[in-house]
Write a structure and sequence with these properties.
There is one protein chain. The chain is α+β, with helices and mostly antiparallel strands and about 140 residues long. The protein has 2 domains: about 45 residues, no CATH class; about 70 residues, no CATH class. The protein contains 6 helices and 4 strands; from the N terminus they run ββααααααββ. The strands form 2 sheets. Strands 1-2 form a two-stranded antiparallel ribbon. The protein has a two-stranded antiparallel ribbon with strand order 3-4. It is elongated and about 70 Å long.
Length: about 140
């Protein structure tokens, strides 16, 4: 990563001082600053933890727990886990009123919406989720 510098001349040589991004932003006009702040807000909004997503939806752990038919401590555990079953994530998102979609991204092609994985499998007469072979 390259650090931009401003020069300060001394008797012997010019000394390069690192520039702080806030110093650069302060020198921008109000319109440029607003555009940068709006884009920063967009980027921040694109990535959230489950807890931040729940809070952005103005929901409490208790409300989500009630929708999931679990205790509040269960929601807390889900929000702290870094490895979830897709069905658990789907249920959590649906409890907040959302819908889970999975998107696969490759460097050499457009993103693809993955189908069939986050969908609920139908319940068989025996009361178990049926397993469908991919074909």
């Amino acid at each position: 990563m390259e650090i931009k510098t401003e020069g300060i001349k001394t008797e012997e040589r010019e000394v390069k001082m690192p520039r702080n991004v806030n110093d650069i932003i302060r020198k921008l006009g109000p319109a440029q600053r607003r555009r940068i702040e709006n884009r920063a807000d967009q980027l921040i909004a694109e990535e959230m933890t489950l807890q931040q997503l729940r809070q952005a939806c103005k929901l409490t752990q208790q409300k989500v727990a009630k929708s999931l038919h679990i205790g509040q401590e269960g929601v807390s555990k889900i929000e702290k886990r870094s490895d979830l079953l897709i069905s658990t994530l789907r249920d959590y998102v649906e409890a907040m009123g959302g819908q889970l979609s999975l998107i696969v991204e490759f460097p050499d092609r457009e993103p693809v919406i993955l189908s069939g994985i986050a969908e609920i499998a139908p319940i068989s007469k025996s009361g178990h989720k049926s397993v469908r072979a991919a074909g």
